[in-house]
From TrEMBL:
Hydrolase as UniProt keyword: no
Protein name as annotated: WD40 repeat protein
Transmembrane residue ranges: 42-63, 414-433
Highest rank taxon of the organism: Bacteria
Keyword set, alphabetical order: Membrane, Transmembrane, Transmembrane helix
Organism: Micromonospora pisi
Entry-linked InterPro entries: 6-blade_b-propeller_TolB-like (IPR011042), Quino_amine_DH_bsu (IPR011044)
Length: 453
């Protein structure tokens, strides 16, 4: 439209006494002007594209390597003095593996919206990673050495165990002889064996925990060897709802129905343990490091033995009828620091508690700030599991500068999209203001030229 008007002006202009314009001069002049405009637009578009790409790449944040390398071995074992706040920028095991995990827990809130992460805390006490690829509600077990996580299938018969190697981020599967209802029970101190209860079962259910309950009520004790994937049935040990390996890994304490037994890995019953009425074996972590004590807890925390104190932990002698320490109160028994100290979850956080009595010493304080649900709700730490073989040597370290690894892929994608959008809006704004700046520059040059005259 503008080019047509310019051509009409040239045709309708009175040349006066001036020389006649060559034929087609106006058209050629307009064509030259159009080429100049196209070149300037192409140059401006190219510059804008480069800017958009640069800003978009900056929005990706730290990038993981294409092939994550095995994690560097950590020196010593630690717990942070406080748990790091919730963050969507916490990377995954698949992008940045850990050497070992001292603890795995679920972290988040569900007050208004469900915002949860299943996190591994590295043995250095400072590194946090999300356990990617494990669906919500999937049963899992951390090995005692902190090097692997074993999972079964959620709310259905399990046909294969999935083992996540925390040091490489790789997964491998060990198939069962036949699909079954499975309940993971305990891990041996050396990280080789996993004890589980298995019962014949087909199909699936929508009720969370129903398949595990079937395995505990009807299942037989079975041992999975993580070195070769073979499962060995411990014949005659049935209806096992809880278990704990001895410190040497050669025998297990099992809760078989209402009875508690010490059995070896071949299934021979070595000794029956008398425990207080209404109490059952504490799952996974019952046995003390010296092999003398077993920890027990109320079968029902809200009635019977648990009515007076739902969080009480009592002790029984595993080898004789010798006197035992008095009960202690703890929300959850996480493991043993030594033969006379336990690691527990208390109102103050993760604490060390003397078995013989005394006040707990808080090692790790839980984040009570409103860092969940977009900084509107406090975070909760649930389903805490510790690598029990690492607890005797752990120390407390500063948690002020947590290592979260490279940003997870969804966060990088959102950040890149937002950065590109902002850069595009900025580019459009600059392009729209360019004519004004050009006219302002021309006026400035004219004023400057007049002043020079």
């Amino acid at each position: 439209m503008i080019e047509q008007r310019v051509s009409e002006l040239f045709r309708g202009a009175d040349p006066g006494d001036g020389p006649a314009l060559p034929e087609g001069y106006a058209e050629r002049l307009v064509a030259v002007g159009r080429r100049g405009v196209r070149r300037r637009r192409a140059l401006g578009g190219s510059v804008l594209l480069v800017v958009l790409l640069a800003v978009g790449l900056l929005g990706l944040g730290p990038l993981p390597s294409r092939s994550p390398q095995p994690a560097t071995p950590t020196a010593g074992v630690g717990l942070p003095d406080r748990l790091a706040p919730f963050s969507f920028r916490t990377g995954t095991i698949g992008d940045a593996p850990l050497d070992r995990a001292v603890m795995i827990f679920e972290y988040g809130s569900g007050e208004t919206i469900n915002v949860w992460q299943r996190l591994a805390l590295g043995a250095d006490g400072n590194s946090y990673r999300q356990l990617d690829g494990i669906a919500p509600g999937t049963p899992w077990l951390l090995t005692a050495d902190g090097r692997a996580v074993v999972t079964t299938e959620a709310n259905r018969a399990t046909s294969a165990f999935t083992v996540l190697d925390l040091s490489t981020g790789l997964r491998h599967q060990f198939r069962l002889p036949a699909p079954a209802a499975v309940a993971l029970l305990a891990a041996s101190p050396d990280g080789r064996y996993v004890a589980y209860s298995a019962a014949p079962y087909q199909g699936s259910t929508s009720i969370i925990g129903e398949v595990e309950q079937i395995a505990r009520e009807r299942g037989t004790l079975t041992l999975l060897d993580l070195t070769d994937g073979r499962s060995t049935t411990v014949t005659g040990v049935e209806s096992v709802s809880a278990a704990a390996f001895s410190p040497d890994g050669e025998s297990l304490a099992v809760q078989s129905g209402a009875e508690t037994w010490i059995v070896d890995r071949a299934g021979r019953r070595l000794r029956r343990v008398d425990i207080p009425h209404g109490f059952v074996l504490a799952p996974r972590v019952a046995w003390s490091p010296d092999g003398r004590l077993l920890a027990v807890q109320p079968a029902d925390p809200f009635s019977g033995a648990g009515a007076s104190d739902p969080h009480q932990v009592r002790f029984v002698d595993a080898v004789s009828d010798a006197p035992v320490p008095p009960p202690v109160s703890a929300e959850q028994l996480l493991g043993w620091r030594s033969s006379d100290r336990i690691l527990t979850l208390t109102l103050g956080g993760i604490s060390e508690l003397p078995v013989g009595g005394g006040d707990p010493v808080v090692l790790t304080r839980l984040d009570r700030g409103s860092s969940c649900e977009y900084h509107t709700q406090p975070c909760l730490a649930l389903e805490i599991r510790a690598a029990t073989a690492l607890l005797p040597t752990l120390t407390v370290r500063s948690g002020d500068d947590p290592d979260r690894g490279p940003w997870p892929a969804p966060v990088r994608q959102v950040a890149a999209a937002v950065s590109l959008l902002v850069a595009a809006l900025a580019g459009v704004l600059v392009w729209r203001l360019r004519p004004r700046w050009s006219r302002a520059g021309q006026r400035g040059r004219m004023v400057l030229a007049k002043r020079r005259r």
